[in-house]
Specification:
Elements: E1 10-15, H1 19-34, E2 38-39, E3 49-54, H2 56-65, E4 73-77, H3 92-100, E5 105-118, E6 122-127, E7 130-135, E8 141-147, E9 150-157, E10 159-163, H4 171-174, E11 186-192, E12 207-210, E13 215-219, E14 227-231, E15 234-237, E16 241-257, H5 262-271
Parallel strand pairs: 1-2, 1-3, 3-4
Antiparallel strand pairs: 5-6, 5-16, 7-10, 7-14, 8-9, 8-13, 10-11, 11-12, 13-16, 14-15
Length: about 270
């Protein structure tokens, strides 16, 4: 936000193409303008707030599409699950009033980072919910896993999910992982269909890793070309992968929340 005039009160509205989202975006833009805010027609990197309308998928795409900006996000839920999307379309007026009065808190969302090294180069990937290492075409893969340079296991199975606290209620939860409160600075490793035999001794439950530890994964030679990296649902394929290092990223994003205790209500509402 260098050289930006924060007194301009610019707000970005980002929405998916669903009919309800488009309608909500138009209504929200009118309401914001009536309160003296500017609503940009294109994404403005000098904005003070990103409002994302849709479901959790729309939220994730917005953060990735705009390269994890410093501008905080808040979500309006027109989708189904809506863990990121806190505001209902019927509560737009209340949200604007709370925002004007600064009656909100900022929640820091931790990200997971992977450095994938092939025989020729290294590539960086960053995820909000999770980074998944799995076999291409559902192939069983074999990997050696270390944490903080301590050898842990010779894993065999469908793959591994490395999730953030925020992502603990997504794919990791579906695979049997634990739910982690979003402010805890940790990562979680959740196995996908692990195989335990005399040759491969794989953990069958998830494990929590503290923030300053690196998770190192080395595919066995025969699996160097069988690895698929999936970042927040987006697939990436690289040849000749020899090592993957995963850690909590130094980057974070900020999410505006009207109720700091909303996590537990959300958990009950979505899953119980």
């Amino acid at each position: 936000m260098t050289n930006c005039n924060l007194n301009n009160h610019i707000i970005n509205i980002i929405h998916n193409n669903d009919k309800e989202s488009i309608k909500t975006a138009e209504e929200l833009a009118k309401k914001l303008k009536s309160h003296g805010y500017q609503v940009s027609n294109t994404y403005d990197y000098c904005a003070e707030l990103n409002i994302c309308i849709g479901g959790d998928g729309a939220f994730l795409r917005a953060v990735h599409n705009y390269s994890f900006p410093d501008i905080p996000f808040v979500g309006v839920n027109t989708g189904h699950l809506g863990f990121f999307q806190e505001i209902s379309p019927s509560d737009l007026d209340n949200f604007i009033e709370s925002y004007k009065k600064k009656d909100y808190t900022m929640e820091e969302i931790y990200l997971v980072e992977a450095i994938i090294c092939t025989r020729t180069s290294c590539i960086e990937l960053v995820g909000i919910n999770e980074i998944v290492i799995k076999g291409i075409n559902s192939k069983v893969i074999h990997m050696n896993v270390s944490i903080a340079d301590n050898y842990l296991e010779r894993f065999s199975g469908d793959g591994l999910i490395i999730s953030t606290p925020t992502g603990s209620t997504a794919y990791s939860y579906s695979a049997g992982g634990s739910i982690i409160f979003p402010t805890l600075k940790v990562l979680q490793i959740t196995p996908l269909a692990p195989i335990s035999s005399k040759v491969y001794r794989s953990l069958t439950t998830s494990a929590i890793v503290q923030h300053d530890m690196v998770i190192k994964v080395n595919p066995e030679y025969r699996d160097e070309n069988s690895i698929l990296m999936v970042v927040d649902g987006i697939q990436h394929k690289y040849d000749n992968i020899v090592e993957i290092n995963l850690k909590l990223s130094d980057m974070t994003i900020n999410k505006l929340t009207l109720d700091p205790h909303n996590f537990w209500w959300n958990l009950k509402d979505k899953f119980i």
